[in-house]
Amino acid sequence: MTQDATRRDLSKIRNFSIIAHIDHGKSTLADRIIQVCGGLTDRELKEQVLDSMELERERGITIKAQSVTLDYHAKDGHIYQLNFIDTPGHVDFSYEVSRSLYACEGALLVVDAAQGVEAQSVANCYTAIEQNLEVLPVLNKMDLPQADPEKVAHEIEEIIGLDAHDAVQVSAKSGLNIDLLLERLVRDIPPPKGDREGPLQALIIDSWFDNYQGVVSLVRLFDGTLKKGDRMHMKSTGRDWEVNDIGFFTPKQTHTGILRAGEVGYVIAGIKDIHGAPVGDTITHTKTRDVARLPGFQKVKPQVYAGMFPVSSDDYEDFRDALEKLALNDASLDYVPENSDALGFGFRVGFLGTLHMEIIQERLEREYNIELLTTAPTVNYELAMDNGDITYISNPSKLPDMGNVNEMREPIVRATILVPQEFVGNVISECVNRRGNQLDMQVLGSQMQLVYELPMAEVVMDFFDRLKSISRGYASLDYSFERFEAAKLVRLDILINGDRVDALALIIHRDHAHSRGRILVEKMKELIPRQMFDVAVQAAIGGHVVARSTVKALRKNVTAKCYGGDVSRKKKLLEKQKQGKKRMKQVGQVEIPQEAFLAVLKVND
Amino acid sequence: MILPSIALYIHVPWCIKKCPYCDFNSHQADAGAGMDEAAYIDALIDDFKADAPMLQGRAISAVFIGGGTPSLFSDRGYARLFEALRANAAFDDHAEITMEANPGTAERRYLEGYREAGINRLSLGVQSLDETALRILGRIHGREEALSAFAHARSAGFDNINIDLMHGLPGQTVASAMDDLKTAEALGPEHLSWYQLTLEPNTAFYSRPPDLPDEDTLVDIQESGHRWLESVGYARYEISAYARGGRQSRHNLNYWTFGDYLGIGAGAHGKITHRGHDGELTVSRYWKTRQPEAYLRRRVDPRGFLAGQRTIDAEELPLEFLMNALRLVEGVPSSLWYERTGLSSEQLQAHLLPARQRGLLSSEGSRIQVNDKGLLFLNDVLALCDIA
How confident is the model at residue A6 (pLDDT cuts 50, 70, 90)? Predict the structure, then answer.
């Protein structure tokens, strides 16, 4: 089968992505398509094949781009090679989407026929249209009784401006109309163009490090042909490598020995360092090293920063090694050493968003077995100094003496929110609370589209969760960085028993400082367990205390009866207590649990 | 180098009814675990004979018959048991021999016989003297039965009686707790084990917790009760143990001073110290088969009654020692550390340092001892000692 596949000419190839909001059924649809094309036997077809990372599967989200090559026997009697490049669906990972789209000629816009269009899909759909992709609207979840295809088709036309009167109505769950969808895909998505005899131009869509194979790169060939044994040239690094293995995923890794223009597949060339095959780079042959570079991708910049500290200082080395390994597969992960008075040695890590942060923390703990404390996330601020220098800080405790700062600027995002009309009031007041500035509001189908400028700091915290909870889960959000803007910002310090705890400091708007300070100390009071002595929690701005509360001391902590010769139960009790303390960090004499460091994320609850 | 003193624990695994707070190895006598006193006494004798070499020549200083409900067995049963024990081991001249008795089963006709069999101390599981509390605790006896059981024990000649009494019971207030305590005190026991009800895993209370008093009430009860007990002449010598006239429980003191003990009977645990030729000290623990029927079957099993054993390694030893020793109000002399664990005094100081820095230890340099605050926060003290 695979040998057949490699012989397909360009007109029998279709490269496509699926654009869909989380839970609109992308993974289920992908599995269906794989099943119909016989990519895996039923026994092999585990649920949601493409979300292969354990965490992706658990959370039901896609984090990294993946691809699968399938043979489709179309009604016209021809066999088509379908290259499906998966895209992540969460707002934190939108940059990955544009990368995936770059490798495609078309995209399926999958919309839940019961729920309607969501902001994330709109944004990704526009990216696809800008890249000249053919976008095919697909209405999914037709098996649900609430499905309203006419209404949703109308919404697609109104919000995105895409003709949807003829949209395929499918149910990935029941298998309804999957054949029709594939026929439509072959009919409407154009085949790739390219010269297979010309000089090689291949784009690296993604690279990851595999412990057994070294760096594996997912590539799209635009011109030329690449074979096993070829000497290839990496345009950005200028280095040459020999192709050891080449092929595609069916979704099993399948060696074909060759990839040709128009195809998507993997290349392995003995590269040991992920930086040797950077995402967005162009591969050509050593003999055609002067061929032009394809336009690559913008380097992603972290949007959110947090300090991460091993609970046990003995884990510091392991932690550093683990971050290094994770960064191999995650170009967006950025980290520099940080030293905190309260938490010791750790790293300040940059993330794409708070979900990215949670995922990294979970992977570090689960895959590398390192207990971590993470400080509250913060954005990157721009400081214009009196001497004309511009500096950036992403760590509140490192804020320099304000006497030398001429202006402090915070990042502003442009946020687009789609929400059913009945929740618009809630969303507007939430945006106002977060210092939002409305740019636009219009009716789109049965939804409202709100466009706001918001301080990024207000968005990255818990805005998305909050939007969901005030709209019964219906609101959707997309945002992107716009600019830095001067703002009246102050540092809010938290003092525990009179000592400033650097890892708890926040940068906050002056108008919010008092109220947030009060809520924060109350939250901390709930989160810090009672100890042998009173614990005073204070919020202060520039040495001036704005709020305080006290965690009353426990009056005793002793096990009443310890009888008998069986010591195991006493030991179990002590062990249990020890486990409970593991997630706490000793700051001075006070034990502070992880949750307290993230209390600021909860102030809006 | 001498070996620690040694005591003997004897477990009787049956009860009329399992109490909802109890996580000890006890089984309802009618629920298939058919109680066969004679067979069990035979088994205990065999069990003891097998363990006797571990005495390594030491005389037994104290015996404790616990349960379950040991008072379900007859006086003649115990007479036969002790006759056999004495034939196989030496006992101290004034060895303390305690038996636990449930006020609901402490039959008058047996009490004198128990005394004659050599049992010289009785521990009455009264738990409460409040009828409602007794019902919630699932006890098989009421207030009056508890009071009369005590009177019968006295008239049978027991001049050393402990009363087990709980506090922090469902619905309890400071006033009702004090009522319980005063009623018990009026009986004039030599010893009071006055301890707070805790919900242990694998109990009915753990899965369906009763409505317990709030934390402040619990501490108020403990403080009021403690003050009052001391004022009427009961000296606290351990977290939950009070004695008058110096009648401390010698058997329990042996645990708290990290002494050795043999354990016979279903599920009983033992602790034994050995010294090698070079003086090297090894502490090990062992435990017997837990299920009563299985235990009885082991009489004819070449494996004997043993279910498992392990050596306590040097890393565990410090905490095991301190977990016991620090429960004593007076602590223990520092010299006991080396005698019991064979570890250096530098190691001792390293373990104690964090708690000392927190001001939780007494300033008495020659003793291993917590101060008043340390006694209230013993769980924290032990966590601080656990420096491994």
Answer: very low
DSSP string, A560-595: S---SS--HHHHHHHHHHHHHHHTEEEETTEEEEHH
Angle between helices B108-116 and B143-155 (to 10 degrees): 40
How far is the C-alpha of A236 from the C-alpha of A258, rounded, in Å?
A: 23
B307 Cβ contact partners less than 8 Å away, ≥ 6 residues apart: B287, B288, B289, B290
pLDDT band at B30 (very low <50, low <70, confident <90, very high): confident
Q: Cβ separation of B287 and A570 shorter than 8 Å? A: no
Residues B323, A570: C-beta atoms closer than 8 Å? yes
Kindly state whether A569 is in contact with chain B, defined as any CB-CB distance less than 8 angstroms. Answer: yes
pTM over 0.90: no
Q: What type of residue sits at position A52?
A: S
CB contact under 8 A, A555 and B263: no
**Are A427 and A450 within 8 A, CB to CB?**
yes
Q: Characterize the bridge pairing of strands B241-243 and B235-238.
A: antiparallel
In 3D space, the residue among B322, B312, B324 whose CA is nearest the CA of residue B385 turns out to be B322
Q: How many Cα atoms are found within 13 Å in the side-chain-facing hemisphere of B63? A: 28
Mean of pLDDT over chain A: 85
pLDDT at A3: 45
In the block, tokens 């040709």 appear at: A260
Can you tell me the distance from the alpha carbon of A69 to that of A71, in angstroms, rounded to the nearest whole number?
7
CA A120 to CA A93: how far, in whole Å?
Answer: 11
For residues A83-105, average pLDDT = 74
CB within 8 Å: A574 and B383 = yes
Cβ-Cβ contacts under 8 Å for A279 (sequence gap 6 or more): A99, A204, A205, A206, A207, A296, A297, A331
Q: How far apart are CA A378 and CA A239, in angstroms?
A: 38
Residue A96 above 70 pLDDT? no
Nearest chain B CA: its distance from A535 CA (Å)? 15
| Contact (CB<8Å) B376/A571 | no
The model's confidence at residue A5, banded by pLDDT at 50, 70 and 90, is: very low
Judge whether A510 and A489 are in contact, CB under 8 Å: yes
Average pLDDT score over residue span B13-41: 87
**B292 Cβ under 8 Å from any chain A Cβ:** no
Cβ A559–B198 below 8 Å, yes or no? yes
- A595 token code pair: 């949750």
B24 to chain A: which residues are within 8 Å by CB?
564
pLDDT in tens, B105-119: 877 889 999 999 999
The Cα-based distances of B387 to A13, B235, B258, B316, B381 in angstroms read 65, 32, 20, 11, 11
Lowest mean pLDDT among A138-142, A212-216, A504-508, B356-360: A212-216
First CA to last CA across chain A, in angstroms?
A: 56
Window from A123-127, A528-532, B340-344 with minimum mean pLDDT: A123-127
Checking if the pLDDT of A64 tops 70, the result is: no
The whole-number pLDDT of residue A588 equals 80
Whether residue B15 contacts residue B67, with contact meaning beta carbons closer than 8 Å, is answered with: yes
Which ranges in A306-397 belong to alpha helices (H)?
316-328, 354-368
In this structure, what token pair is assigned to residue A46? 């585990």
pLDDT at site B388: 62
DSSP letter string over B59-118? PEEEEEEEES-GGGS-HHHHHHHHHHHHHHS-EEEEEEEEEEE-TTT--HHHHHHHHHTT
Tokens of A377: 């996330």
Beta carbons within 8 Å of A239's beta carbon, 6+ residues apart:
A233, A276
ipTM more than 0.90?
no
Picking from B11, B22, B378, B387 by the largest number of A CB atoms within 10 A of its own CB, the best residue to mutate is: B378
Q: Which of A89-103, A267-281, B16-30, B370-384 is modeled with the greatest confidence? A: B370-384
* CA dist., res. A470 & res. B219, Å (int): 43
